[in-house]
Amino acid sequence: MTADPMQRQGLEAFRQEVRGWIAANLTDDLRDAAARATSVFVDKPHAMAWQAILHRHGWAAPHWPREYGGTGWDETQRHIFDSELAAAGAPSLSPMGLRMVAPCIMRFGTPEQKAHYLPRILSGEDFWCQGYSEPQAGSDLASLSLRAERDSEDYVLNGSKIWTTHAHFANRMFCLVRTSRDGRPQQGITFLLLDMALPGIEVRPILTLSGDHDFNQVFFDNVRVPQSGRLGEEDQGWGVAKYLLEFERSAAYAAGLTAALDRLLASAAARDFGEGGTLLDDPAIRRRFARLYTDVHAIHAAEQRMMAAIARGRSPGPASSMLKVQGTEAQQRIQELAVDIAGPYAAPHQFAARAAGSNLPFVGPEDDLTASARYFNGRAASIYGGSNEIQRNIMAKLMLGL
Ligand SMILES: Cc1cc2nc3c(=O)[nH]c(=O)nc-3n(C[C@H](O)[C@H](O)[C@H](O)COP(=O)(O)OP(=O)(O)OC[C@H]3O[C@@H](n4cnc5c(N)ncnc54)[C@H](O)[C@@H]3O)c2cc1C
Description:
Elements: H1 5-25, H2 28-36, H3 44-56, H4 75-88, H5 95-108, H6 111-123, E1 128-131, E2 147-151, E3 154-162, E4 172-178, E5 189-195, E6 201-206, E7 215-226, H7 237-249, H8 254-269, E8 272-274, E9 277-278, H9 283-311, H10 319-342, H11 348-355, H12 371-378, H13 388-398
Parallel strand pairs: 1-4
Antiparallel strand pairs: 2-3, 3-7, 4-5, 6-7, 8-9
The structure holds flavin-adenine dinucleotide.
């Protein structure tokens, strides 16, 4: 935060403006949907309803350049905005369009692609999913094999993608396909933007350990994608793919983590620890909170540095790997602490019964209802976007020169 008193006053006024606007526009059902979400993703109707409200006010994509619909805020203002949203319990927006494919379209797209896709991403008219992973290509993404063969004006796609988050909601997919087997595996990959309604696409659900339907396997049987859907050059999609991954991994963590910690602290302070004390009188619990708040402050500082670099037109670079590791591991430690604080109230069957429509009253504090489902779902955070082992390999190579 800036030390200049005038600027500080300006930022405080900005914070009050954002807080007031959120209080006036965030409806109870949107807040409830976010409170009940056990996955990083809130379900599509609520996420899109909230995006529409933000969009009407010009706040759907503060991180975008102003020429495409961004707000022109600096990184401190964006952090204030994120913090206020998180503290108010607003639903998260789907990142696949706004945060992942949009920066790639801005950088690699033709003028026609920019004019067509960017406004639709901003308004929520298009909902995107990510077709990177395949049954035989995860960490070793360059070994992907979904075939795309040219036939007159189209590419004809055959193969499948897996772990495709929200493919069952999406009307668009950005997708990596194999257009050549010559040279290194990275050289024959092409980046396509495609319509999920094309004939020959089939989406089959995969349920997670937490009981959520977040992701799918998507099958392609002679799917014809017009060549106008190619982003960048044929066989050069690896550069676009890596650029996108840096944005995927550089999600802003600090604001959400701080809000989650604050809520958990309040919840621990409300629990009986015997003799009139609360759970916060337990030194082991206090130490865990202290450690987590310290970690989250460090993540915030790293995030600010990276946001400043992005604002100067740089890509996030390998710092995004560091942030992904730190952010997701802190998130998992918060979820573990939530389960420990909830104790027996974290029993997973209570959430499962509620999700299945049971009217039985929930036993225990309302906050505990989602603790175990969030814990299970949170295991995925150190896997998606490239596993944390792979991020450590990237840091070792690019930051430490090992
Ligand atoms: C919730 C969730 C949502 C997802 N959403 C999407 C999506 O929308 N679109 C999409 O395309 N993909 C998605 N994914 C897939 C995700 O990107 C892959 O799961 C991830 O890249 C790991 O690949 P894999 O599952 O094939 O594991 P593998 O690559 O088989 O890895 C298995 C284990 O081995 C380790 N390992 C592998 N190679 C190395 C190495 N060289 N050094 C050290 N350790 C290594 C890994 O860290 C991991 O622990 C999602 C995954 C999850 C869990």
